[in-house]
């Protein structure tokens, strides 16, 4: 029996098959690379956002803040009260008649950095730095200065009251003192909110309640 010779592939058909295979491979590679190219800006933006959140801070010049005055700035979407407290207020904050009416006068609940766990809840006694959000339902309290008890923060939404160190009074809807954010002094009159002093550690996300 004579073997039937195989029919050779025409050069033109072979060339077309090779070209078709090459185009398929190129298309598949383009889709894969394209997917990475499209995804990279998105992934990179997430990394950038995380970096911004982790290292975001606000610098505030308090050199023109007069005694009894308060300014409000925004840090990570939260209002932050910066109050220059009069000497009379500082004396009142230590008065036994006030302290006896406070729910957490010694700031034992984790609502502030360790370096502000003191009777004035601040780095320097005369300057209060507080998150201006009531710990009840998130309303913004109003500053009311007066001769009686030196003044207070009054939440008009549901009646919670805090002294000028942000400590909540007893029998109020708010369960905790006003939070104190991480902050430091980068110059004598410039406060950096969002950064701890050197050698100090405080994770604001772990406070009791905002």
Automatic annotation (TrEMBL):
Keywords: 2Fe-2S, Cell membrane, Disulfide bond, Electron transport, Iron, Iron-sulfur, Membrane, Metal-binding, Translocase, Transmembrane, Transmembrane helix, Transport
Subcellular location as annotated: Cell membrane
Cofactor note: Binds 1 [2Fe-2S] cluster per subunit.
EC number: 7.1.1.8
Reported cofactor(s): [2Fe-2S] cluster
Chief location category: membrane
UniProt key word Cell inner membrane: no
Enzymatic reactions: a quinol + 2 Fe(III)-[cytochrome c](out) = a quinone + 2 Fe(II)-[cytochrome c](out) + 2 H(+)(out)
Top-level taxon of the source organism: Bacteria
Domain Rieske, residue spans: 94-192
CDD domains hit by this protein: Rieske_cytochrome_bc1
Family annotation (InterPro entries): Rieske_2Fe-2S, Rieske_2Fe-2S_sf, Rieske_Fe-S_prot, Rieske_Fe-S_prot_C, Ubiq_cytC_Rdtase_Fe-S_su_TAT, Ubiquinol_cyt_c_Rdtase_Fe-S-su
Membrane topology according to the record: Single-pass membrane protein
Membrane-spanning segments: 22-43
Other observations noted: The Rieske protein is a high potential 2Fe-2S protein.
Function: Component of the ubiquinol-cytochrome c reductase complex (complex III or cytochrome b-c1 complex), which is a respiratory chain that generates an electrochemical potential coupled to ATP synthesis.
NCBIfam families: Rieske_proteo
Subunit: The main subunits of complex b-c1 are: cytochrome b, cytochrome c1 and the Rieske protein.
Protein's name in the database: Ubiquinol-cytochrome c reductase iron-sulfur subunit
